[in-house]
Amino acid sequence: MSNPYLLLTPGPLSTTSTVKEAMLKDWCTWDHDYKTIVQQIRLQLLEVGRASKEHYTALFMQGSGTFGIESTIGSVIPNDGKLLILRNGAYGKRIEEIAKVLQISYVSLIFDTNTQVDPQAVERTLVEDTSITHVAMVHCETTTGILNPLEAVIDVIKRNNRIAIIDAMSSFGGIPIEVEQLQIDFIISSANKCIQGVPGFSFILCQRNELKKCKGRARSLSLDLYDQWDTMEQDEGKWRFTSPTHVVYAFAQALKELAEEGGVEARHARYCRNQQMVVEGLVQAGFTTYLAREFHSPIITTFLYPVHFPFSFDHFYHDLKSAGYVIYPGKLTDANVFRIGNIGDVHAEDMKKLSEQILRYVGEMKDEN
């Protein structure tokens, strides 16, 4: 059965028929064959992140991406630690909410939603507040699609001897990231993002020595990062509690298809082409991007509501949905915006047809008014 529409969202996203078909087989969580798949995926994730198995390890956490973020924040930071949160969107704010609920000491460095995290401001904060032990940042903040300067920020964090926690939910697998070269300590993403699997678990790449320090730190039983890793190590791929077996097998297929496409570099190039075509098409139709071009990521783009004709997002949304495209509403409080994602099993021809549909829609709206 084919999908009635493409998901032009930052995940869940449109997946290939072969990824869907991979979920048609049932698996036993204790079975050797299934655990072998889990172990293979763990090694493949290190390859995607360009991290060696000598210094890094990969593990999974049941649930959405936020489960992986909360697991990491709640397991990595000791009781006497302090977290610096670099925030320029809703997902940085979510890390704040996690820290608050878990009663973790934290301070936030807040930037405008249309502005990148400033490495110099981060350095000033780390120099001034020596009690900070960990720093968390969202790489691609899907609130707007802004891409924060990962390399420059990590350089500041490591130069000042702090632990780096990176939310790469919407970038890992779609944007090349040299995890080991950058010395990222913990980086988190999800099955249903750029690797193009389906929702059901998050995954974390961890610097081994830092992960080993986390034993006994977790503020949750089920979200204990160290214990999850220790079980997977000792029992060769076994999850502590029931794992989403169908999702795992679909993810294995998605990783195979990532390699067949040419790896992260090729997927990144496709996403960039998609994004450029969307921007060009909507600008031609009279829309304006919320962010300056130099801040765009290839993941998702935020557009301002047009002013050259009466605009209703709901009407626009349903028109596109009836034509086979589902887009995202905005997530800003200070501007009327909507978002269009470029990731998943979506290609240049899809973006060309989307642009044509939007041009037709704008033309019809102008004629009516």
Automatic annotation (TrEMBL):
The modification N6-(pyridoxal phosphate)lysine is found at K193. The keyword Transferase applies. It comes from the Bacteria. Its EC number is 2.6.1.37. Substrate binds at R339. Keywords: Aminotransferase, Pyridoxal phosphate, Pyruvate, Transferase. It holds the Pfam family Aminotran_5. Residues 33-292 form the Aminotransferase class V domain. GO terms for molecular function: 2-aminoethylphosphonate-pyruvate transaminase activity. One of its GO terms (biological process) is organic phosphonate catabolic process. Signal peptide: none annotated. It catalyses: (2-aminoethyl)phosphonate + pyruvate = phosphonoacetaldehyde + L-alanine. SUPFAM superfamilies: PLP-dependent transferases. Homodimer. Involved in phosphonate degradation. This is 2-aminoethylphosphonate--pyruvate transaminase. It comes from Paenibacillus donghaensis. The gene is phnW.
